[in-house]
Amino acid sequence: MTVPDLAAPRHHHRLHLGPPPPPIRQRDRVLLAIASFKFVKAALFVVVALGAFGLLSRRAAARAQDWVATLAATYDRGLTHRVVALLERISALSRHRLEALGVAALLYAALFVTEGIGLWRCRRWAEYLTVVATASLVPFEVYEITRRVTVPRVGALVVNLLVVWYLVRQIRRTAHHHR
């Protein structure tokens, strides 16, 4: 009969996430900002999914509509009308389309959370994933701008191009250091 070695490391059945990331003060602040932006986008898509699935009560939805309209009115009075029109169009969607919208929103939220966690933990795969995912949306953003130029559309395009540019630069820089 053998006696188990109590000092031996125990293997847990956890997902191995690689070595721990460096302390926050040593991490790239731009990567942390991009990760934070991904987390915010994920939260917004979860809210969209909840709304699409009808998980928000009518009272909460009405309160959210009032809040959005008030917030929009402080920045752009024309935006209030667009927000209300958008909410009316969404509420007119069929149940099937609302469910599809909810599923799509959850998938995007999952992607953004995955990118955010990977970038927050300074993982090279997350930089590649974010470059591919973000760059793949650029043609759609350009198309939307050709249909109608708006500040939010141009702003989204510029931010996404800057994210792709920065991450490609990071990937090349670290690849050059590892040669």
From TrEMBL:
Pfam families: DUF2127. It comes from the Bacteria. The chain crosses the membrane at residues 30-56, 98-120, 150-168. InterPro entries: DUF2127. Keywords: Membrane, Plasmid, Transmembrane, Transmembrane helix. Residues 1-21 are annotated as: Disordered. This is DUF2127 domain-containing protein.
